C-alpha cells in the first residue's frame, strides 16, 4: 500500500496564503480569524496574502456581500497583496483543467440519474453499508461500461485512488490520515443544462459536456494557479482535504501545507450564531469596537504567545510563525472582548476617539446631546475614555453627562435630597457669580473660582462639588469638576447652577 502525504510540499517556496470567503453575507467572525492568521503568517515570513471570493453559489452571492467583505478587511487593516479574485470569472480555466483530467484518465463522465443514485444508496443502507457511488461508470481495465443514454447530461467524477491512504501533517492537528477506499468518486462538474445539451448536437465534444465545476475542484485549481503554499482554514474542511490532495497529485501540482482551525463556539458551547450577539465583523465596527482590539481578541481565540493577552499588530506579526495554534475549540466571550477594547480605547489618541464618537453623534443628537466643537469633544473623550468599553458607549456617556439635566426625574431628586446639604445653595449661587466674571472659560480659572468659593463659605470640596455635579451633569460622580465645567458652554453651565434657586 502506498501513502500520499502533503508533507512533501516544498518549504523553500515563498510563503503565499489566502482567505476565500463566500459572498453570501457578512464576513463571519470565524472567517475573519482565518483571514487574520493567514495574513499574519504571510507577513511574518515576508510572503504574500491573497483575497479570493468564492462566488460559485450564484443564487446567494451578492455584490453587497462582496463590498462588506472588502470593507471588513479594510477596517481590520488586513491588506492583501493580490485580489480579490472571483471564481465565477475563472470558469473557463476550471473547464480546461477538467478536460485535461478526462484526457489523462483521472476523471470520467457519469450518466447515473438522480433516481438511480437514490436507489443505489437505499440498497446500500439496507445492506448496512455506508452510502456511496458504486462506480457504475468508472472506467476499469477489461470493464464494459453501460451504453451512453440518449439525451442525458453527465456529471464529471474524479477517479479517486482505491488503494493506500492519504495523509498530511496538519499545522494545527498533527498527522491526519484517510484510507483512500473510504473516499468515493467526487463530482467535479455538474451536468450542463438541457438546452446546452441540445445545442451540442448528437455527438457533442468533451468541452460541451462539462458543466459548472464544483467547490472542491475549483479550490484546488485556484490554489495551484495562485501558488498557495499554506492553506489555513476551519476544521469543517478536514474531510475535503484528502479529496483535494488526490486532485493535486493527479494534476502534478505542488501540495500546500494544511492547517485546520477548530471552530469558535458561543458561551453555551454551541456553534457561534446570531443568538450569541453580532457575528459579522462589520457589526462590531458599528457597535464601537476598535480594529486593533478585534484583531487582538480574534488572534487569542486559538493561538497564544506565552501569557500575553494584549499585544499590537506589529507584535502579532513578529510572533505568529504558525506554532502554538490550539487544537481545541475557542469560546467567544463578549466580556473579554469588551475588556480588550477598553484597553485599546485608553491607548487611542483623543483626536481619533473624537472622530469615532462623532460617527455615533448624529443618533445621539436627536436625543438632546449638546453641540460640541472638535477641540471640546477631544477633551471630553480624554476625561471619559478610561470609563468606556466602546466608542458607542463613550458617545452615550457624553450625551448623558453633557446633555440636559432632568431635575424632575425621581432618581435625580433622590440623589439631590441626599447630597444637597444645608449650605450648598448659597455657595452655588456665589460660585455662579464668580464664574460669570471669569475673563476666560478655562479649567484653571474655574478651579480658582471653586477654591475661593469654598474658602468664603467654609466648605470642603465634596460639600460643594457633589451638588454642583448634580445640577450641571445630573450625576453625583464625574471626573474633575473644573475640567467638566469647561466642556459646557459658559452660559449653559451658569444657568444650570442657578436652577438651585428653584430647588431650595
Automatic annotation (TrEMBL):
Keyword Ligase among UniProt keywords: yes
The enzyme's E.C. designation: 6.1.1.17
Protein name per Swiss-Prot or TrEMBL: Glutamate--tRNA ligase
Species for this entry: Amphibiibacter pelophylacis
Gene giving rise to this polypeptide: gltX
Keywords: Ligase
Top EC class, one word: ligase
Amino acid at each position: 500500500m502506498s501513502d500520499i502525504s502533503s508533507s512533501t510540499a516544498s518549504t523553500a517556496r515563498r510563503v503565499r496564503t489566502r482567505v476565500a470567503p463566500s459572498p453570501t453575507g457578512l464576513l463571519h467572525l470565524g472567517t475573519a480569524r482565518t483571514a487574520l492568521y493567514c495574513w499574519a503568517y504571510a507577513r511574518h515570513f515576508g510572503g504574500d496574502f491573497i483575497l479570493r471570493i468564492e462566488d460559485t453559489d450564484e443564487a446567494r452571492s451578492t455584490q453587497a456581500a462582496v463590498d462588506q467583505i472588502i470593507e471588513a478587511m479594510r477596517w481590520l487593516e488586513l491588506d492583501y497583496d493580490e485580489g480579490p479574485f472571483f471564481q465565477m470569472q475563472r470558469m473557463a480555466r476550471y473547464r480546461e483543467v477538467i478536460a485535461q483530467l478526462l484526457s489523462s484518465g483521472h476523471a470520467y463522465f457519469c450518466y447515473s440519474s438522480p433516481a438511480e443514485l437514490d436507489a443505489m444508496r437505499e440498497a446500500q443502507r439496507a445492506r448496512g453499508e455506508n452510502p456511496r457511488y458504486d462506480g457504475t461508470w468508472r472506467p476499469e481495465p477489461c470493464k464494459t461500461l453501460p451504453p451512453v443514454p440518449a439525451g442525458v447530461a453527465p456529471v464529471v467524477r474524479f477517479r479517486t485512488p482505491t488503494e493506500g491512504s492519504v495523509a498530511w501533517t496538519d499545522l494545527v492537528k498533527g498527522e491526519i490520515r484517510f484510507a483512500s477506499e473510504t473516499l468515493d468518486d467526487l463530482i467535479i462538474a455538474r451536468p450542463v443544462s438541457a438546452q446546452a445539451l441540445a445545442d451540442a448536437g448528437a455527438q457533442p465534444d468533451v468541452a460541451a459536456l462539462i458543466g459548472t465545476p464544483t467547490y472542491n475542484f475549483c479550490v484546488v485549481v485556484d490554489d495551484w494557479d495562485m501558488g498557495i503554499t499554506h492553506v489555513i482554514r476551519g476544521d469543517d474542511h478536514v474531510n475535503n482535504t484528502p479529496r483535494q490532495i488526490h486532485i493535486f497529485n493527479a494534476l502534478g501540482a505542488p501540495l500546500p501545507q494544511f492547517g485546520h482551525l477548530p471552530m469558535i463556539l458561543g458561551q453555551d458551547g454551541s456553534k457561534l450564531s446570531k443568538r450569541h450577539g453580532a457575528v459579522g465583523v462589520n457589526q462590531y465596527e458599528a457597535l464601537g469596537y476598535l480594529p486593533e482590539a478585534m484583531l487582538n481578541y480574534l488572534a487569542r481565540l486559538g493561538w497564544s504567545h506565552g501569557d500575553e493577552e494584549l499585544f499590537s499588530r506589529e507584535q502579532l506579526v513578529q510572533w505568529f510563525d504558525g506554532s502554538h495554534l490550539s487544537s481545541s475549540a475557542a469560546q467567544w466571550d463578549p466580556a473579554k472582548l469588551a475588556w480588550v477594547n477598553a484597553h485599546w480605547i485608553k491607548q487611542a489618541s483623543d483626536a481619533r476617539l473624537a472622530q469615532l464618537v462623532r460617527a455615533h453623534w448624529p443618533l445621539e443628537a436627536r436625543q438632546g446631546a449638546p453641540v460640541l466643537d472638535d477641540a471640546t469633544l477631544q477633551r471630553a473623550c480624554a476625561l471619559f475614555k478610561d470609563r468606556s468599553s466602546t466608542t458607542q458607549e463613550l458617545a452615550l456617556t457624553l450625551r448623558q453627562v453633557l446633555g440636559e439635566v432632568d431635575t424632575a426625574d425621581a432618581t435625580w431628586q433622590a440623589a439631590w435630597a441626599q447630597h444637597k446639604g444645608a449650605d450648598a445653595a448659597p455657595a452655588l449661587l456665589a460660585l455662579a457669580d464668580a464664574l460669570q466674571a471669569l475673563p476666560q472659560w478655562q479649567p484653571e480659572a474655574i478651579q480658582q473660582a471653586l477654591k475661593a468659593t469654598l474658602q468664603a463659605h467654609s466648605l470642603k470640596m465634596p460639600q460643594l462639588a457633589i451638588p454642583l455635579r448634580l445640577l450641571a451633569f445630573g450625576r453625583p460622580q464625574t471626573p474633575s469638576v473644573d475640567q467638566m465645567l469647561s466642556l459646557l458652554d459658559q452660559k449653559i453651565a451658569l444657568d444650570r447652577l442657578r436652577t438651585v434657586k428653584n430647588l431650595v
